[in-house]
């Protein structure tokens, strides 16, 4: 399996589009000055993937930061998402236009359904809207977030386009091996949100042992584990030193045994909502 060798290295989605394997998440970045500084710092360091969402209430900030940077828009891979309350065909089309206006662009690289919700007919209608946007070129790729295997089966039974991405909570305490294997079988790239489990694994003995072994931080070990799993990662930070640390993943390689030891930490423990229960609110 090819693993990214630098911040511009990409994985190929099922429609041929290339997505950087490491990006910047901007969840909770709502302070305009702080977020602008963080995003521009990341772009200067070589980040080219930025992941936002309508519910984050910072699409305007992201658009402003990109336009103020020295990096041209077409060099950046931008992701945003439709929120639960905007699901359904017509509502999704309107929500997409709102996101375009806030981001100050005429297309989105990747547009995602943020959560499946409990109504399969509704997310099917939402997907129909995404397929329309994809066919028009307004979204260069489309995908989903937080879809379990049964959600994907329901969608694949009726869709014309297979999702390019499934963005899920994924970290050493929630390895999601069955779901990741299913996505691989269907040629759906897995993208990890909360890839370092909100820093809740900082004291995990196995990870600390490996951090010392490789002369890296626990965060870097976890992120490298994701890369070697073939997963796209979008760690979030507003601190330039952390953003830099999160990018320094390409000068070491975890052994097969160490990969297995990290896999063995799985506890099926979520730090975010359960996709089968989550409807609205955040």
UniProtKB/TrEMBL annotation:
The record marks 81 as: Lowers pKa of active site Tyr. One of its GO terms (molecular function) is oxidoreductase activity, acting on the CH-OH group of donors, NAD or NADP as acceptor. SUPFAM superfamilies: NAD(P)-linked oxidoreductase (SSF51430). The keyword NADP applies. InterPro entries: AKR (IPR020471), Aldo/ket_reductase_CS (IPR018170), NAD(P)_OxRdtase_dom_sf (IPR036812), NADP_OxRdtase_dom (IPR023210). The keyword Oxidoreductase applies. The active site is at residue 56. Keywords: NADP, Oxidoreductase. Residues 29-266 form the NADP-dependent oxidoreductase domain. It holds the Pfam family Aldo_ket_red. Substrate binds at residue 114. PANTHER family: 2,5-DIKETO-D-GLUCONIC ACID REDUCTASE, NADP-DEPENDENT OXIDOREDUCTASE DOMAIN-CONTAINING PROTEIN. Belongs to the aldo/keto reductase family. This is Glyoxal reductase.
């Amino acid at each position: 399996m090819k693993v990214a060798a630098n911040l511009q290295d990409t994985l190929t989605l099922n429609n041929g589009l290339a997505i950087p394997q490491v990006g910047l998440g901007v969840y909770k970045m709502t302070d305009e000055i702080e977020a602008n500084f963080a995003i521009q710092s990341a772009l200067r360091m070589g980040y080219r993937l930025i992941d936002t969402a309508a519910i984050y209430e910072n699409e305007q900030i992201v658009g402003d930061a990109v336009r103020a940077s020295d990096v041209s828009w077409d060099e950046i891979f931008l992701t945003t998402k439709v929120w639960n309350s905007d699901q359904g065909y017509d509502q999704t089309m309107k929500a997409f236009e709102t996101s375009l206006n806030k981001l100050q662009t005429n297309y989105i690289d990747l547009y995602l359904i943020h959560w499946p919700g409990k109504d399969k007919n509704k997310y099917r209608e939402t997907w129909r809207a995404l397929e329309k946007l994809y066919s028009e070129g307004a979204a260069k790729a489309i995908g989903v977030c937080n879809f379990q295997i049964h959600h994907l089966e329901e969608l694949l039974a009726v869709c014309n386009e297979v999702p390019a991405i499934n963005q899920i909570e994924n970290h050493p305490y929630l390895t999601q091996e069955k779901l990741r294997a299913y996505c691989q079988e269907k040629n759906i790239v897995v993208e990890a949100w909360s890839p370092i489990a909100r820093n809740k694994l900082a004291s995990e003995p196995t990870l600390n042992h490996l951090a010392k072994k490789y002369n890296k931080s626990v965060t870097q070990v976890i992120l490298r584990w994701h890369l070697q799993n073939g997963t796209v990662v979008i760690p979030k930070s507003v601190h330039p030193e952390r953003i830099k640390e999160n990018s320094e993943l390409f000068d070491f390689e975890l052994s097969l045994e160490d990969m297995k030891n990290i896999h063995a930490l799985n506890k099926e423990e979520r730090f975010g909502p359960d996709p089968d229960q989550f409807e609205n609110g955040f």
